[in-house]
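Exercise 3.2. Students should predict the tertiary structure of the chain below and write it as structure tokens, then compare their answer with the key that follows.

Predict this chain's 3D structure.
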Amino acid sequence: MKTIKFSVLLAVAITLVNCGIVCADLTPNQIVAQFNGLGTNGWSFTSGSSTERYFAPANAAFTPDRSAYHPNALGTGTNRFHTFCIEPNSPSLASSGTAVLNFSGGNSTRVSIDNKAVSVGTAFLYQQFATGAFSSSLYNYTNASQRASDYSVLLSTLRVLMEPQTYGSLNWSTNKFLAYLLTVNPNQSYWTGVYNPGIRYNEIGNYAVFVMNIHNASGGGEYQDFLYIARADYGGGGGGVPEPATLLLWTLGGIGAFGVGRYRKRG
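Answer key:
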């Protein structure tokens, strides 16, 4: 009886801990509020890389949520993460400044040139990159020269998916990232459609992708726009397959219920 009682208590304790982990994900609106609340205009950043850009707080008090990022997309150093500039003609970027997540009216848009919203394809490919989901044939995270080449192709693809009318020369058959999208959904217009971070897409899962608008240190000016991803809680909407943490929670709950039943029966 003592063994069963201990098992029940252990199952309940682990369930509560996992509930805290699962419920820790924020809604897209909360993600934006938390990120932008790190400072008057967001959090300070530094940048620099020969491949993807990376960002890290210049002030140790500002700690961005990097839980959605795979180690391959974090870079070296404290609190850094890799991202991509989604502007076709990027202006010069200051060495430091501030950043805010742009999310209004269901869209996350770049602000430097035309307020163009992120597309579904752009959001999905960045989610795949950031979470380390790409196969080595699509994106080689470990080989420096191949990674630089893959970066160049992916960068162009992220931009073309936001402006197909401008960059229509990219071929859906020969561009490996566009071809990859078609294996997931063969409808090209689906991938070029506007992405809403407030809606859960089965292909993207419980993540929300935003445009990170970069400003100068005083919060003024509009330098460049980059991508940012965070884990999101959509309240179980949108269907799709539950994530491992959720499955574990259900399993532990079942074990706890079984243990309680056994305990009462023996009592």
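Discussion points: The chain has a mean pLDDT of 75. DSSP finds seven helices and six strands in the chain.
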